[in-house]
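Worked example 2:
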Amino acid sequence: MSSALDQISEAEIDRLRELAHIGASWAATAFARLVGRTILTRVPLVHGPDRFRKRGEWETGIFCVIEGALDGVVAVFLPKAPRDAVLELLCKRQSPPKEMAASALTEFGSILTSQTVSAIADTIGGRILPGVPELVLENAETALQARMSPRHRPPPPLYIESELFDRQGDFRALHVVLPQVPKAATRIR
């Protein structure tokens, strides 16, 4: 993966993957309740920061810094069509005013990231506090890449992603957990 991962064992990586999967499952359940459909999760993929996969399709993102028993960032990304479908459901209209759309997407991200944080905290028996969600309407993948830049802070050596989706293909989201590994390795055993 990455030389930054030398500081963490395979068992610790597996544990973080498991925690991210539990968080993604809880987020998928919340997503399902919001859209009235079954939302499935793919098995999480773990990458080092040098292998961040910028795809270009995940246009909108909601980022939430987390602190406590696990520090890092939880992010939810949406492509354009699923973002618009979520907005139509939440706002009860097509093309809602910009302020209403921003509020609805921020709340959507807050709900999913809060479920993630609760799931992980419950599983490890610790306290994790989510920060205020940050909405990035366009170029969210680039924004996350910038956050992972060492210029801003040391990047987390792990990027754990899991896709959330419905069988019909109308709703998709990318659920990402970026744990601060040195702290995670000592607290989640």
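The radius of gyration is 16 Å. The CA atoms of residues 48 and 158 lie 5 Å apart.
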